[in-house]
Amino acid sequence: MIRVLLVDDQPLIRSGFRALLDLEDDIEVVAEAADGKEGLELALLHLPDIALIDIQMPVVDGIEATRRIAADPTLAGVHVVILTNYGMDAYVFDALRAGAAGFLVKDIVPDDLLHAVRVAARGDALLAPSITRKLIDRYVSQPLDTGAGAGLEELTNREREAVALVARGLSNDEVADHMVISPMTAKTHINRAMTKLHARDRAQLVVLAYESGLVGPRNS
Known about the structure:
Distance between the termini: 37 Å
Largest sheet: 5 strands, parallel
Mean pLDDT: 83
Strand order of the largest sheet: 2-1-3-4-5
Low-confidence stretches: none
Number of helices: 10
Oligomer: single chain
Strand content: 5-15%
């Protein structure tokens, strides 16, 4: 059973998402919150698998709520998915850096929402290649974070290659095909890289790859 926490200041949005999610046999909405502060309290209480969090909310906004969840060891198993009204607004990048596993647009079709919840519950990032492209564009216009490459030297050549492919938006199977290895070996390389780089999930791994300069616009 995938346990979901809904955090949005609009009751209509919460009720709509809840009505859809509760119809599924493998998904359960365990709580609802109207702001980030309440969302954090309920996350600690219920320890959900997924927290669907709106960006713009009163008291504590979605980015700060995400940052606090990511920083709390008790909530290490909570995957935050940001809800936004736009495909890639100015806040989404900051949310990914704060520890979000990905994001959904609020007008998402029902089947895509259900798929996204299941993908996030598996620990996979909701980052399509088009969104990765926008992350690249963002980094073209700003200097690299020199502190972001900590641990990069600990990666093996194969792990670095796997991380670079993940940062381009490839799935585990696609990484395996590109590297001519089995999907299980590809997953092992990626998981070991995440551990060495202290990346919470694949989304953070993508951000770290660009921040460190491992990948950039010329090799993406």
